[in-house]
From TrEMBL:
Keyword annotations: ATP-binding, Hydrolase, Nucleotide-binding
Pfam families tied to this protein: CT_C_D
Domain called Carboxyltransferase: residue spans: 10-210
Protein name per UniProt: Sensor histidine kinase inhibitor, KipI family
Organism of derivation: Rheinheimera pacifica
Length: 239
């Protein structure tokens, strides 16, 4: 019996010889992210052994299938069957993860810049960053790099005009409406505000990442001694 609940709108397109891309409304929104998570669960159950991988993002899902076992036509029909079961709802089951952060000018070289630009204190920047529960909207550009949103509007900062040649592993950063923890040393143009000792990607552990798309993340301030006790490293933090 119909309860008057509107069905989500989506677009399904071919994305390669053994892939289809599912698009929802292209915006950063918890309700859209919840639909992505619903779709992933249904797709994994429906395609089962025919599935190679399901890759969720902010408002899309890439579905890769085994072309030796099935084809675009069959998979498209299966996906449409899955999508008919979706409901518009923000309720979802997720994991809640706390990540410790050593916030300081020593570990976060852009803290002072953000405070000066926004005409607030460094302590206010730190407090505001911790006050929000962030949703994991996507993972990439590197394994373990979780795009978290959304940052307090007062803390939103554009990417640096000139990216750093090397950002240290564990750097906690802000860019526009997003925040993230760098899982490994790499070039980067985000604004650095602290360091997290938690390994965001460790292939020797199961699971390899402490967070997944759809999870909620809270940052918790720790002091330098606790950061070092938890295995954090300061070398290179000044870059």
């Amino acid at each position: 019996m119909s309860m008057g609940i509107s069905k989500p709108q989506y677009q399904l397109t071919v994305a390669g010889e053994n892939a289809l891309m599912l698009y929802f409304d292209q915006r950063i929104d918890p309700a859209i992210s919840a639909l992505v998570q619903q779709a992933c669960v249904l797709i994994r159950a429906e395609l089962a052994a025919d599935l190679i991988d399901v890759l969720p993002s902010y408002a899309s899902v890439l579905v890769m299938f085994n072309p030796l076992c099935t084809d675009h036509f069959r998979v498209q029909a299966q996906l449409q069957h899955c999508l008919a079961q979706l409901q518009n709802s923000e309720s979802h089951s997720c994991k809640r993860v706390e990540l410790p952060v050593y916030y300081s000018e020593e570990s976060g070289p852009d803290l002072a810049l953000i405070a000066q630009t926004k005409n607030i204190s460094i302590d206010d920047v730190i407090q505001r960053h911790q006050a929000v529960s962030y949703r994991v909207y996507a993972i990439g550009f590197a394994p373990g790099f979780a795009y978290l949103g959304e940052v307090d509007p007062l803390l939103q900062m554009p990417r640096l005009a000139t990216p750093r040649a090397k950002v240290p592993r564990g750097a906690v950063a802000i860019a526009d409406r997003q925040t993230a923890v760098y899982p490994a040393a790499s070039p980067g143009g985000w604004n650095l505000i602290g360091l997290c000792p938690t390994r965001m990607f460790n292939p020797q552990q199961t699971p390899a990442m402490p967070v997944s798309v759809g999870d909620e993340v809270r940052f918790v301030a720790i002091d330098k001694a606790e950061f070092l006790r938890l295995g954090g490293e300061l070398q290179g933090a000044e870059l």
